[in-house]
Write a structure and sequence with these properties.
Blueprint lengths: L9 H34 L3 H7 L3 H4 L6 E6 L4 H17 L4 E6 L6 H6 L4 E2 L1 E5 L5 E6 L4 H13 L7 E3 L3 E2 L4 E3 L11 E3 L4
Parallel strand pairs: 1-2, 5-6
Antiparallel strand pairs: 1-4, 3-7, 4-5, 8-9
């Protein structure tokens, strides 16, 4: 007569308990990681949200307030890196200064891109009320530099950092200059479709 030994089911019960324990531990770790992931996503600042809050250029040029105009692109890592500081500065100075954002990937802004000779982004233009440009900064800028310029802009005093350059993301305008010697009828730059 064969009898089942009480120890024959013990290894399978131990294996099941260990497996269940590991499943619980993995579930807890994934829950904590997911929770931290959501917290970092909700506190980060996106360029899209900043654009929605930005003042349209037409309004900025006519509302008698000085303006900080930023040329940017969603793919620009420098623009993304500066977004939290720019959002904070807009929250602090937005009642006295227009914050305008122009996407360099939008052909609508080609006249402004050419006028301000944007060849790297982010590219900032500081303007007095009415739209007269009085200073520019190209590339990543320390918050302290931008803030010092904003304070001066709001007070109507000279910008302490009127021309500064930091790390940029490469950008080239869809414009090429034709050689006037090759074409006597050429009159300078021509828009070229690079797509």
């Amino acid at each position: 007569m064969a009898t089942d030994s009480p120890n024959s089911t013990a290894p399978s019960q131990n294996g099941t308990q260990i497996r269940n324990f590991l499943v619980v531990v993995v579930a807890i770790v994934l829950t904590v990681a997911f929770s931290f992931g959501l917290k970092t996503q909700t506190t980060s600042v996106s360029l899209d949200s900043m654009v929605k809050e930005a003042i349209p250029l037409e309004v900025a040029l006519s509302n008698d307030k000085p303006t900080l105009m930023e040329f940017y692109a969603n793919w620009c890592t420098s623009c993304q890196a500066m977004a939290p500081d720019m959002k904070s500065l807009k929250d602090q100075y937005g009642d006295r200064i227009n914050f305008v954002m122009l996407n360099v990937d939008n052909e609508k802004w080609l006249p402004e891109i050419l006028h301000y000779r944007v060849d790297g982004i982010p590219h900032f233009v500081y303007m007095k009320a009415g739209g007269e440009g009085i200073g520019q900064a190209i590339g990543e800028q320390p918050r302290t530099v931008i803030e010092a310029n904003l304070v001066a802009l709001a007070e109507g005093t000279p910008l302490p950092y009127a021309q500064s350059t930091g790390q940029t993301s490469a950008f080239s305008t869809p414009v090429e200059t034709k050689d006037s010697a090759a074409d006597p009828r050429g009159h300078g730059s021509q828009v070229v479709d690079k797509s």
